[in-house]
Write a structure and sequence with these properties.
Helix content is about 25%, strand content about 25%. The chain has about 250 residues and is α+β, with helices and mostly antiparallel strands. It has three domains: about 55 residues, Roll (Structural Genomics Hypothetical 15.5 Kd Protein In mrcA-pckA Intergenic Region, Chain A); about 100 residues, 2-Layer Sandwich (Alpha-Beta Plaits), CATH 3.30.70; about 80 residues, Alpha-Beta Plaits. The strands form three sheets. Strands 7, 8, 9, 10, 11, 12, 13, 14 and 15 form a nine-stranded mixed sheet that branches. Strands 3-2-5-6 form a four-stranded antiparallel sheet, with no helix packed on it. The protein has a two-stranded antiparallel ribbon with strand order 1-4. It is elongated. Bound molecules: uracil. Uracil binds next to helix 6. This is Pseudouridine synthase. GO terms for molecular function: RNA binding; rRNA pseudouridine synthase activity. Belongs to the pseudouridine synthase RsuA family.
Length: about 250
Amino acid sequence: MELRIDKLLAHMGYGTRKEVKKLLKSGAVKVDGAAVHDAKTKVRPNEQAVTVWGEPVAYRPFIYLMMNKPPGVISATEDAMEETVVDLLEEEDRLFAPFPVGRLDKDTEGLLLLTNDGQLAHQLLSPKKHVPKTYFAVIDGEVTEADAASFRRGVMLDDGYETKPAELVILKSGPRSDVELTITEGKFHQVKRMFQAVGKRVVYLKRVKMGPLALDPDLAVGEYRELTDEEVEKLKQYRAGEDEKKGT
Ligand code: URA
């Protein structure tokens, strides 16, 4: 597989694409010993030797993507039958072998982080971290403050599991209600099963926040983009902050 030299170098921390362009212009970048000046030059990082100022560029950068997951695709890297979120990525991004951090149901939309940074993913998914996840949901039925109180106390799911306190904000109450629910765990079908526990049904579900990351409102359903440096930094600091709090 091939990718653009500017993208490779930007991923590797050689600066923004603009800075990388300058680096290329300066003649610092060589591919198989020959200077490369054009940012659009395609390289095969697995096969070709890329150097900057004579130093080899180790291949295997981290990649962090934010997707507005569409309904109808599964949160997996590959599947024999179903389309996966990784199938939606451009080949250039797939090259970095990102995987989804946690799962959204096939019919759930919204914020999904994909990365190849296993350590970060592991930390964000660790049940010990209690990373808050906020969902916007449309509920068939009238959601009441009594439901909010139940969720604050914890409800019993169909398998007997007692949920941790969760925050329910009722945006619109009626025969169809709009709500926002923040949970700090990630049991299978958790939001749907929590509403089931209070006799109501989720008809639309979209994740809008995960830890310090909020879904970019400019991302249409099915679109994705790289996290900004600030977002990556926030994620890493958040993780470090959580570590401190727990004294780990
Ligand atoms: N809870 C659910 O029920 N489904 C999801 O996809 C995420 C949380």
